[in-house]
Amino acid sequence: MALYDYGGYVDTYSDLSSIWSAISGDTESAEYKKWHPKGATTKKAFGKLHFESIGEGAGRKLPDPDPYPTTLPDKPVYGTTKPGAVIDEVGYATTAVAGSPTLGVAPDIASPAQRTPGVEELVEYRISQMMKETSPYTQQAITNAKTFANQAGMLNTSVAATAGVDAAIRSILPIAQQDAGMLHGQALTNQKVVNEFIMEDFKTKATFQLTEYAGDMNTYNTGLQRAHEKNENSIERAWKQDQSKLDRELTTYTNEFNAEKAKVGQMTLCVDNAMARWSATVAGIESKKEDMSTASYNQSITNAAKTRDAEIRSCQRR
Prior knowledge:
This protein is mainly α. The chain is about 70% helix and about 0% strand.
């Protein structure tokens, strides 16, 4: 399991450095559109993708990593979160309310019916009409008074006539009062009916206006509520999308970190084994040093070192 430096691979070749510069700096570039969908979100990822798909076949080489890397995998870069369009609730409410339906002015109401009592409603008028000399009622009263006076032996007909007029007035008064009261009462009833009609007409118009206003306000408030809910839903969806993206980046980084950690552990074990075999070989050579020539001893030590170094390089390329 090798710990190849794919980032160093990109830096080694100038054409790859230029491609990565375009990928990381211009989301509209052809290089970005080609490599980013394949997973080239970091320099290391781009290097690995390029080497495995093109570089290795073209004979390009990966630089050897350090036996014990001191750098961690590329950390995810968190940009500025851009949620859905956020509305200033106070400002939005002020603007929204400014456009709410208006009740408008109250409906017109006709002027109330007013009247001045007519002369025919006056008792005085009724009596004067009934007491005219041409009135059959008055003539009949005078005739009756004269007849009664003649029967009583009264020769002064003027006194009899005066008595007849007086009798007529006393009998006419109740009639005149009743007629005048009837006319006056009928006039008041008519006036009341007209004013009641005017008031009912006004109340009906006002009720229709209030009902229409209530309907407009209900529709308007429903629209405001829907707009508010739409805005809240937009913010929530944008937040969830950003959160999901951050979670995926964190998961990717965690997996890469754990993989690198496992690689380092395996490489360390491999190197330790190589060093242990080298130590054992050197110990074996040292035990036979008395029976070996200086040249043979030196060559054996050199060969052991070369074997050790070859095994260590092999550890790095697994």
